[in-house]
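Reading a protein record of the kind used here takes only a little practice. The record below shows the convention in full:
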Amino acid sequence: MANSLLPMSAGFATCMSLIVSIGAQNAFVLRQGLRRHAVLLVVAICIASDVALIALGVGGFGTLVTRSPLLLTLCTVAGGCFLLAYGFLAARRALRPSAALDAGTGETGSRRRAALTCLAMTWLNPQTYLETILLIGSVAAGYGAMRWEFGAGALAASCVWFVALGFGARLLTGFFARPSSWRVLDGAIAVMMVSLGTSLLAGL
């Protein structure tokens, strides 16, 4: 048991250092948490996706992906286009105060739409594959037979982060009770999404 703690701790720290950033997926989870809409579903999708991706990375799939330039290019194009589209939608919300929603109230959309958007944010984002399959997978490979313990630590970090982000966002409800705060959030998300999408497509 003691021998497993070191790779598990390393996996937890590695994943946490990669996942704690303002990215497309985290921004979406934060917004859902603030709106208190389909939070459990969104968090569950994020965690389940990380389980699959980290398992693939630890299992060695990362090596296969790096050897397929076509696959990487297709993922990059799809992810870049999706981020640009979502960024423009966020910009439209920011420019239309009447569309801003108070946290916990108003029209929130369907759970199916939230689930599909979350899946797209996760599986159409090349950064997701870079962090989980390639980076975590390559680091895990260095632990040899203990690589699955490393992967378990990485999965624990994913669970802690998404639960904290999704359900902890409600602590900011007071601040986001003002429509102007939602405009700032959507404006920041728009800039970030468009920048990410543009940088992805520009790198082709």
Summary: The first helix runs from residue 2 to 19. The chain is about 75% helix and 0% strand. Confidence is low (pLDDT under 50) at residues 98-107.
